[in-house]
Every structure is written in structure tokens, then in C-alpha cells.
Amino acid sequence: MDKFVIRGGNPLVGTVRISGAKNSALPCIAAAILTEDDIVLENIPLVRDMDTERRLLESMGAAVQRPEANAQHLMTISCRSLSDPVARYEIVKTMRASSLVLGPLVARTGMARVAMPGGCAIGGRPIDLHLKGLEKMGAAITQEHGYIEARAERLRGAHIVFDKITVTGTEDLLMAAVMAEGETLMENCAREPEVCDLAALLNAMGAKIEGAGTSTIRVHGVTSLHGAHYRINPDRIEAGTFLIAGAITGGDLIVANCDPAHLGAVIAKLQEAGARVDVLGGDSVRVRGGGKLQGADISTEEYPGFPTDMQAQYMALATQAEGVSLVTENIFENRFMHVQELVRMGANIKVDAKTATVRGPARLSSAAVMCSDLRASASLVLAALVAEGETVIDRVYHMDRGYEHIEQKLSSVGAQIQRLGNLFAPREQAAYMAD
Question: H or E stretch including 14?
Fold first, then answer.
């Protein structure tokens, strides 16, 4: 498996451009299932999860153009033929978001057979809320041999109140509802920008959705959808990661091609911690470090609160701040797996239940560390950028799931980072895919 070798100590200076949002692209690709016409998506990030989603749709009979083939990161998806509406375990097991095909498959073909996702390194992400919603819309649900099967001649509009806020549940049922008979009212919905991105694409395809971005979404069902050309929003988590990179290294970094409106909680917390953050025009944010960082507490919440996907990165920053920072994780029950690796580098962190107490500033030093999940990987990279000596980060395939060429972007603004391959990569990679 590939490794990153990072020598710390360089402030990041310059401009870095943010890629399209992985967590928007995944449901938007799944939405292509709903029409026989072509869907053209622009600004697709070149990350591993996009390739997994492409293989999933192709296994069902769709034709999908790889985004690497063009400069605009275009992906063209044709689901004219869906000969096999089954999401097989061999593909689903590598990406939890594969369950997003459940709703659109039932809406389009009347049947979906989707492998049940297994455990997740950062905690359980059950899809029971997806299934309860589909049953309310008239689908018959069965589970056997590790697969969920849903059948409905045509889904019916329903009143759905989510027991808890769920992003993928909101997205999955939104796609199911757009071609259901009658009106669907969804309450306690997720308000994330990624939900708004999906709703905007669906409306461009001919859907009638009102209220996306609020806790209440109303959908008026239509009989069919058509093709569309849509540009995916910038990735707010990648943008937040680079803002922290600029602050933690004491640099002067412009994060371009982002949406500052989606970064409110992260920008506010960076400013509270002592970084200078300025919004430049409509799509750029400048962060300047160099002064003393101060401890500041965070508590992860659903959007527009501080995102759980930025918790690990913020913890790396907190190790360099004066005083005590309390980091409370409210979304996932097992999202502190990066703590032990940061401690190996010299961080002073104690975990009690869902709160980590970080005391700083800590003198971080190089160590051999290992990635456990996507965002934990980013926290280790950030820590290595300020650690003394040369840090080796293993299992960076986790980072490749959601960050496009991050080592190249970091190198372009002054980081000393190199990707190294492993002589046993094919065998180890095969073992990982079989986990």
C-alpha cells in the first residue's frame, strides 16, 4: 500500500484549488438511475469513491464515462439499460454510500436488491431509516442472505418524519419520492449542502422539490425524469482541511474554488482559535497563521453546526494551541481512532466517552503512523506538517477515497510530502478489498 513521507516545518504559502464534493457527487451519480436519458455531471473529483460508484452502476448495466477522460472532470452516465438492478456485496462493502442506489432503483425499476453494508470504522451507519421510509411509500421489504430487497409496482407519496437527522436517508428517500404517486412530505430532514446539490440536480431533471436545505422537504411526484447537465458544488470538507493546514503551519494560504457560505462553522472556530481568516470575493478564503493559536472547544453537530468530518482535522490544530480544547463528537460513536496515532507523535490527548481533552501546544515529532479512516488520515497529514523530522503515514488509500491528489496540492504550496509505493501493494490491496 502507498505511504506518505512528510517532513514538517514548512509554512504553506500560495493558492490551492478545491475539487468537487465527493459527498455531493455520490448521490448525484445515483440519481442518474432515475432516467433513461444521459446525465452529465461536471466537477467530479478524481477520488477512489467515484471509481467505486462507477463500477457499481456499470454492474447494473449502465454506461459511465470515467471523469479522467476530460479536463472539466465531466462524467456522463447513461442508465438507458438497467439489466441487473442489484448492488452486489463485492462493491458495496468498499463504500457505505452504495446504499444510495436503493431508493432510485425501486422508483425506476420497481425492484432493488442491495447488499447490506457491514460495519464502519467510525461507527454504525444503519439504513433502517431508509427502509422505514420506503415501507411508508408502499415498498415491500425483505432481508435474507445479507441482502435487502425492496419491491413496489409504483411508490406512493407519504408523510415521513425521520427519527433522527440522516443525510443519506434524506437523499435516498428524496430520490425515491420524485417519481412516487402523489405528494411526499419529509420532516426532520438533513440540511447539508450536499442534500441541496442533489435536489437541484433532480429539479433540473424535471422533479418538483421544495424546501431542500430546510428541515421540511415537500416533493410532488412526476411520472418521468429527463436528462440534465449539472455542476457539482466544491467540497467543503476539503476546503476546511486546507484552511486548517494554512493555520496550523503558520502559513498564508488562499483556498480557491470553494463556497465560503458552506464553511461558516469552520471559519468561526478558526477565528476563535486565533487564525486570521478573510473571505475574498465569492469563491476564495484566505487564512493566515503565524500568531499564537488559542485553545477553543468544538462540538460536532448536523449542518450548519461544526461538521463531524472536520473533527479529526481540528483536533490536530488543537494540539498546537495554547491551553485546553475540548473536542466533543456527537455524530459517530467511534470517531476518535486518530487519537492514538496523534499521541504517538507527542500529542497530549485524553478521551472520556465522547469528549477528547487536548492540551497544547505539544511538541510533535516524527513517527510511523497508520490511517484508520478518511478524515483520520487528514488529521495525521496535518500533524505531520508541523512535526519535527520525517513522518511516515501508512494506508493512505483511506485518504485517496476523498481527497484528490492531496500530496500534489500540498507540494504546490510548500509542503515536503512524497508518495511512496509498496513492493507488496497488489497483495495488500487485494486483502484490503476483501476485508
Answer: strand 13-17
Q: Of 120, 189, 196, 258, which one is the catalytic site residue? A: 120
Over residues 320-355, the pLDDT tens digits come to 999 999 999 999 877 899 999 999 999 999 999 999
Cβ atoms of 387 and 347 closer than 8 Å: no
Query: If DSSP states are collapsed to H, E and C, what string results for 123-183?
Result: CCCCCHHHHHHHHHCCCEEEEECCEEEEECCCCECCEEECCCCCHHHHHHHHHHHCCCECE
- Give the pairing type, strands 63-64 and 38-42: unpaired
> Do residues 256 and 180 share a domain?
no
* Per-residue confidence (pLDDT) for residue 338, from 0 to 100: 94
Number of compact structural domains in the chain: 2
**DSSP per residue, 85-104:** -EE-HHHHTT-GGGGGGHHH
Residue finishing a domain among 170, 203, 231:
231
Q: In the predicted model, what is the mean pLDDT of residues 4-16?
A: 98
- Supply the range of the domain harboring residue 214: 22-231
Q: In the annotation, is 371 catalytic? A: no
pTM here?
0.94
